[in-house]
Amino acid sequence: MHVVVPFDGREPKTRLSPVLDIEERREFARAMLEDVASTIESVGFEPTILATSDVDCEWPVVVDERTLDAAVNDRLAEIDGPVAIVMADLALATPDALGRLFAAGGDVVLAPGRGGGTNAIVARHPDFRVDYHDASITDHREIAHDIGAEMAEVDSFRLASDVDDPADLAEVLLHGEGRAAAWLREHGFELASEAGRVSIER
Ligand SMILES: Nc1nc2c(ncn2[C@@H]2O[C@H](COP(=O)(O)OP(=O)(O)OP(=O)(O)O)[C@@H](O)[C@H]2O)c(=O)[nH]1
Ligand SMILES: C[C@H](OP(=O)(O)O)C(=O)O
């Protein structure tokens, strides 16, 4: 199976701009990418980074400057056989969680993200194409249905937790075991309590 990790390192994670400046967001996004790619590797697959510009890293990189959908759909059309698409901001992903995703049966396997996104996909049907953004999980269910694909979903806290907003950083500090969690600690982030919920402070 080909495992593709989309990554836009140019102005990443704009929703984290209340707490991280542009250089910090680049570094943090890169730390998450390394966590995701090395976790994929640890379950026996070589990730290909599908990036908007060249990335200096130990994995193969395919550069495609077009939109996310255009770049991913081109890979889906070009690659023969199963393709997994795993987002680069899954800082809580573990070998166990990704292993369950890759092993799940079905023509199309979806890992929903909190908030309506689609954090990972395994596509074994040649006609499956993506339509990211907004409530993409609904769109991906519909696309799978329309092409007559047998669909499955993976129920996983770790795969559902993409890191988009400042509140998600608390989850990384609570549960992350990799470079992203270490990066946050090195840059002064720690857990705090706010109105009975865990938050972050710096
Ligand atoms: N190749 C490619 N990857 C992208 C593109 N846009 C987003 N990504 C990647 O897709 C995944 C999900 O990204 P999002 O959380 O939607 O967006 P983001 O740009 O990182 O963050 P925001 O600016 O806060 O929306 C991350 O791994 C991004 O690096 C794109 O245009 N091309
Ligand atoms: C790419 C997008 O990510 P989100 O903006 O939901 O994190 C999606 O999953 O459709």
TrEMBL record:
Pathway the protein acts in: Cofactor biosynthesis; coenzyme F420 biosynthesis
GO biological process, one term: F420-0 metabolic process
Domain of life: Archaea
One Pfam family recorded for the sequence: CofC
Catalytic activity from the UniProt record: (2S)-2-phospholactate + GTP + H(+) = (2S)-lactyl-2-diphospho-5'-guanosine + diphosphate
InterPro entries, sorted: CofC, Nucleotide-diphossugar_trans
GO terms, molecular function: GTP binding; phospholactate guanylyltransferase activity
EC number: 2.7.7.68
Keywords of the record: GTP-binding, Nucleotide-binding, Nucleotidyltransferase, Transferase
Enzyme class: transferase
Family, per entry: Belongs to the CofC family.
Quaternary structure annotation from Swiss-Prot or TrEMBL: Homodimer.
Functional description taken from the UniProt entry: Guanylyltransferase that catalyzes the activation of (2S)-2-phospholactate (2-PL) as (2S)-lactyl-2-diphospho-5'-guanosine, via the condensation of 2-PL with GTP. It is involved in the biosynthesis of coenzyme F420, a hydride carrier cofactor.
Protein name as annotated: 2-phospho-L-lactate guanylyltransferase
The organism of origin for this protein: Halorhabdus tiamatea SARL4B
Gene name as annotated: cofC
